[in-house]
Design goal:
Blueprint lengths: L1 H7 L18 H12 L6 E7 L3 E8 L2 E8 L3 E4 L2 H13 L1
């Protein structure tokens, strides 16, 4: 199911933001900063999702770009094209 979502939105081989923010203390900190930055985009839209008891997997869009987010009680990850990751990391570091 997740593979189908990634394929549908062109994110099958998209890299993760986590290695780009390896100087952050843990995934909780990355989660907080990612959501803080993402919420600044007025056109942020949830496009697709799979919800579980502990969290879910989501496709969001903003500015014509798609991102895939895994957000549950154990982990957080965000994958997107390298250009989108570069933009988000730059904004996160400014915060």
């Amino acid at each position: 199911m997740i593979d189908e979502m990634l394929l549908k939105y062109g994110l099958t081989n998209a890299p993760s933001i986590l290695p780009m923010l390896d100087d952050f203390s843990d995934e909780r900190e990355v989660r907080e900063y990612c959501w803080q930055v993402l919420r600044t985009y007025p056109d942020l839209t949830k496009e697709d999702w799979i919800i579980g008891i502990e969290g879910g997997d989501y496709i969001y869009s903003f500015g014509g770009n798609y991102i895939f987010i895994t957000d549950d009680i154990w982990s957080f990850n965000l994958v997107a094209s390298q250009a989108v990751l570069d933009l988000l990391v730059e904004r996160i570091r400014q915060v």
